[in-house]
Write a structure and sequence with these properties.
- The chain is an alpha+beta fold.
- The protein folds into two domains: 166 residues, Mannose-Binding Protein A, subunit A (Mannose-Binding Protein A, Chain A, Roll); 126 residues, Mannose-Binding Protein A, Chain A, CATH 3.10.100.10.
- It has seven helices and 17 strands.
- A four-stranded antiparallel beta sheet has the order 6-5-7-8. A four-stranded antiparallel beta sheet has the order 10-11-17-12, sandwiched between helices. The chain has a four-stranded antiparallel beta sheet with strand order 14-13-15-16.
- The longest helix is centred in the last third of the chain and has 15 residues.
- It starts with a helix and ends with a strand.
- The N terminus is likely disordered.
- Bound molecules: 2-acetamido-2-deoxy-beta-D-glucopyranose (4 copies).
């Protein structure tokens, strides 16, 4: 308790709000609770940790919030140093920066040489056939520096501490527990870590009131793929295969088990031509492939509507 009082005293506008989850910090100026995490992580692992807590990496949408986050950093992290906030150019093939929580992108506080023009996605994305899932490695994220508060275009693979924001009154909710909500897709996801056949994994998702995940955009492909590997703690280069809702219909065309349209991605050439009627996401590129036979066992990821 003493440390909390001392902590609150150091950072104006922060206070203990009983509506906030334990271990998070309320504010007097918005309806968010902030979770300060000292353990360094990659940008996406940090984001998924925030997702599991019901939020996102913190958006810094105005000069006041930027100063508030900077104050939290100075009170908690190595100073000088850097920490992750929720900005990245992860979103599909544009190179555009955005907040992962869906906030409008307007205020920025870039350092003078940032963002680095050579680090935009466009040069990567134009070479990828339309509809093909994009590789997770082609994006950058924002590191805020303390004590100056400026933003740097940073490689997301760097390990940094981070600050999550958790809404007091989330507008969307996932079934409890074990589901995470991605604002970028508006759906909830849960990983089934045990190995089983597609048919059994499908049934397990149905038993949760959900279905195997269907995928309808690059950002959904990247988030679902990376979240599943992060949850399985699978090294990205090996064993990174898991089931999604891909299955062939009686005419041999790929479909989604949840009945949504097959409107994104592709399974042409060798990827679609394995013996099984069932499909998976594969490795860190999250391309889609049929599996070699119907008895193959892999982890899986379920998807549910939020409510
Ligand atoms: C940040 O800390 C400074 C120094 O303690 C304080 O004057 C200022 O009000 C704080 N700003 C915010 C937004 O918390
Ligand atoms: C990306 O930025 C460009 C230039 O500002 C803009 O024209 C385009 O609409 C943006 N794309 C998205 C998906 O926001
Ligand atoms: C699933 O199978 C893989 C490959 O055999 C194995 O490495 C992994 O530990 C298994 N996972 C579980 C949860 O049993
Ligand atoms: C299956 O896919 C082929 C090639 O796109 C298409 O011509 C055919 O109409 C599809 N069949 C069904 C039942 O969707």
């Amino acid at each position: 308790m003493n440390s909390l009082v001392l902590f609150v005293g150091l950072v104006s506008f922060a206070f203990a709000n009983s509506a906030c989850p334990d271990g998070t910090i309320g504010t007097s100026f918005n309806k968010l609770c902030y979770k300060v995490v000292k353990t360094p992580a990659t940008w996406l692992s940090a984001q998924f940790d925030c997702n599991r807590a019901g939020g996102d990496l913190a958006a810094s949408t105005n000069v006041f919030t930027n100063q508030f986050l900077l104050n939290l950093s100075i009170a908690n992290f190595p100073n000088p140093g850097g920490f992750w906030i929720g900005g990245s150019n992860l979103v599909e093939g544009t190179g555009n920066w955005s907040w992962i929580d869906g906030n409008v992108w307007s205020y920025t506080n870039w350092a003078s040489d940032d963002p680095k023009p050579t680090n935009t996605l466009d040069s990567v994305a134009v070479h990828i056939p339309k509809g093909r899932p994009r590789n997770i490695n082609s994006y950058d994220a924002i590191q805020m520096h303390s004590p100056n508060g400026f933003w740097y275009d940073a490689s997301k693979t760097g390990l940094l501490p981070y600050i999550c924001e958790i809404p007091i009154n989330p507008s969307r909710n996932c079934p409890e527990p074990n589901w995470v909500y991605f604002g970028k897709t508006g759906s909830c996801y849960q990983v089934l870590a045990q190995n089983d056949t597609w048919v059994n994994q499908h049934q397990a998702c149905l038993n949760l009131g959900a279905d195997l995940a269907s995928i309808h955009s690059n950002i959904e492909n990247l988030l679902v793929g990376a979240f599943t590997l992060d949850t399985l703690q699978t090294p990205q280069a090996s064993n990174g295969i898991f089931f999604v809702g891909l299955n062939k219909n009686s005419k041999g065309n790929w479909t989604w088990s949840d009945g949504t349209s097959f409107d994104y991605g592709y399974m042409s050439g060798p990827y679609g031509n394995y013996g099984s009627a069932y499909g998976s996401l594969q490795y860190s590129a999250f391309y889609w492939a049929g599996v070699s036979n119907d008895l193959q066992k892999y982890p899986a990821v379920c998807k549910s509507d939020s409510f």
